[in-house]
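Ticket #4471: structure export looks truncated?
Reporter: QA, pipeline team
Priority: medium

Steps to reproduce: submit the single chain below to the structure queue and open the exported record.
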Amino acid sequence: MNRDLVELIKEDEGCRLDMYKDTVNVWTIGYGHNLEEGIDQETAEFILSRDLEKHASELDRHKPKWRELPDNVQLVVLSMQFNMGWNRFSKFVKFWEAIENRSWAEAGRQMENSKWWNQVKTRGPKLRKILEESVEI
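Actual output as written to the record:
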């Protein structure tokens, strides 16, 4: 892509990291990206990858030992972090205690005993099953 063009667009559009309605009332983000046009599959995959990296980094900051957990437990923890974000996920105190004690069944019970469980429909039971299948060797 022509660097001069990129700089020209950046200068003309400016960058907004939050959604806003432009001068013709179209939802926009970034450097004038029209959100109403949607995105293609490649862009969706890229965004998902970046989001997962961001959420894994957040777990690294707040719960650095999460990477020492069995793979299936890491999968569940990162999926929940992705879904809720740290501000909500950090409030799952009893869940985190169970995870730190490697009590997978108790962690599953704590998942089910939450408002989140009812909000996510099939995700909760699926993640609980994955979690409870984890066995420490």
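Status: closed, not a bug. The export was complete when the record was re-opened. Leaving a note from the reviewer for reference: Residues 3-37 form one domain.
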